[in-house]
Amino acid sequence: MNNKTRRILIWAIAVLALLQVAILLYLGGLLRPGGAGTGAGATTLPQFQLPSAGTVVPGGRRLTPTVSPEEVVVGPLVDADDHVALARGFDVERALEHIVYLADDELGGRQPGTPGGRAAGDYVAARFADYGLRPAGPNGTYFQTFTVPYGRITEPPVLTVILSDGEVLTHTYAYRTDYRALTGGYVGAGEGEGPVVWLNRCDRDAFVGQDLVGKVVLCHHTGDPQVFRQAIEHQVGGLLLLERERETPIFRRGGYRETAWVPQTIPAYLISETVAEDLLIGTDYTLDDLSLRFTAIPLSVTVRMAVTVEEQEEVEARNVLGFLPGSDPQYRDEVVVVGAHYDHLGREPDGAIINGANDNASGVATMLEIARL
Q1: Where are the extended beta strands (E) located within the chain?
Q2: How confident is the model at residue 66 (pLDDT cuts 50, 70, 90)?
């Protein structure tokens, strides 16, 4: 890790620490046994009782942890007046050590069901034990095991531009830099080849009255999930979503790799301006011109797309649960939950590791420092 990256991470952790001050103030008064205050005694405090893995209730929802009382002998109340000192106890260097470990290549991107994902969970549980948190999972462990569906792109997706005279554009696009496939819901695996049509923002009105069967639709990426539903309903051959003037580059965009909602998905890519400009070959348009046009505009090129996805229905994942009894009987029926997801996306189809330093190793590091304090 170079010095510049290290400084950026330290500043990021510092900002996260400030955002957590309110939680620290509350926890300081409620959750730390020992120290100055009034006398000790026995009180009834909550303890997590977890459902069995994969338990589902009507409607397809999974049960969440419930709370039942446990008799706990608590220490004296904490004198939590010095909130500033408590907040200043946040150790940035220690938090950075957590990030460096969790985002290391050795963990392979922390995908659920992989050795790296399991190692990340073991690391969090070990820190909980170090900091005095009780196991809150089944059978006296820190772990709640469950299964999740997971879709994995098995090879780099195909993106080919064919000019109006049939010539294949020889420009090679870099996956994760120039384009990236999306998976989950209505989009994912599939092949498509067709003429490109511009639909600006791909809102519902843009699709009305258009014959788009088998065509590849190009539009701005707005983040509206209804775009995918409209594309399926109008039987498009594929979707190209232009990322323009966004702070987050394409290789960092994309979310949890969900499985398909429909029997037949369509290919959908985020694309850069480099790709979009190639799609305008043979026209007099610029990207700025198209952005001002809200009617469907056929372009001169044809695009070929193909995505291969392996869907796994039974990937094992683990929540890591620790419990710290409170010290004030006045709040014995209340629970403060502090959490952060520790899993990430694993590897790209070309083998590149998605390390996830800020999604969400930094959040886990902040949570661990709160637990330590």
Answers
A1: 41-49, 56-57, 61-62, 66-74, 134-135, 143-153, 158-162, 179-181, 190-198, 216-220, 238-242, 268-271, 297-307, 309-320, 322-323
A2: very low
**Could you tell me how far CA 180 lies from the centroid of its own chain?**
16
Q: Which of 282, 307, 332 is the last residue of a domain?
A: 307
pLDDT of residue 349: 86
Distance CA 67, CA 45 (A): 9
Q: What is the CATH number of the domain that holds 160?
A: 3.50.30.30
Measured distance CA(38)–CA(46) in Å, rounded: 21
Among 332, 314, 364, 346, smallest CA distance to 153 is for: 346
Select from 139, 143, 137 the least CA-distant residue to 47.
137
What pTM does this model have?
0.70
pLDDT of 46 strictly over 60: no
Looking at 269, 288, 307, which one is the last position of a domain? 307
Domain count, the chain: 2
Q: Is there a single domain that holds both residue 162 and residue 139?
A: no
Which of 74-78, 282-286, 339-343 is least confident? 74-78
Q: Where are the alpha helices (DSSP H) in 63-131?
A: 83-88, 92-102, 115-130
Pairing assessment for the beta strands 41-49 and 66-74 based on DSSP bridges: antiparallel
Report residue 265's pLDDT band, with 50, 70 and 90 as the boundaries: very high
Higher model confidence: residue 39 or residue 162? 162
Q: Identify the domain containing residue 64 by its residue range.
A: 3-148+315-372
For 275, the enclosing helix (H) or strand (E) is: helix 273-279
Task: Say how far apart CA 134 and CA 225 lie, in whole Å.
Answer: 41
The answer for 229, left when phi > 0, alpha when psi is -120 to 50, beta otherwise, is: alpha
Distance separating alpha carbons of residues 259 and 239, to the nearest angstrom: 18
Supply φ then ψ for residue 70, to 5 degrees. Answer: -140, 135
- Secondary structure class of 242 (helix, strand, coil): strand
Regarding whether 327 and 202 lie in a shared domain, the answer is no
The pLDDT of residue 85: 78
